[in-house]
Amino acid sequence: MLRHAVTLALILLAGSALxxxxxxxxxxxxxxxxxxxxxxxxxxxxxxxxxxxVLQGKKPKNAALDEQAPLPADGGTLFYAGKGYRLxxxxxxxxxxNAGEGLQGYVYGPxxxxxxxxxxxxxxxxxxxxxxxxxxxxxxxxxx
Length: 144
Prior knowledge:
Blueprint: H1 2-18, H2 38-55, E1 64-65, E2 78-82, E3 85-96, E4 103-113, E5 125-127, E6 130-133, H3 134-141
Antiparallel strand pairs: 1-2, 2-3, 3-4, 4-5, 4-6
């Protein structure tokens, strides 16, 4: 009986090792990255982590603020440079509806861009933007 349990455990371990490396969250969630080189996997993993952090209202962990990028006068959009990708954190003052009585707030979210050499297909950007009221955005970002 013990021998069967040990054999079953080894089979399960081997099966999970062969299952590959799927990301748990972010824009590549659930996608197996086994066909990529280790350097390409690192780019996708770091970019996905930063993308997910922005969606959670946090600053990117892997990409650094691009101090050479011009700052738009839109309410707080920032540009980051990562290893093999660029991340733009859109934070743009926005209003919808009638002036003075419509919705006032921000369009906020990440724009992940890869160079054409890395993403030669039709799309080299992944975007997730949505509207937040001032209070909603402050709650999400902690006032950052």
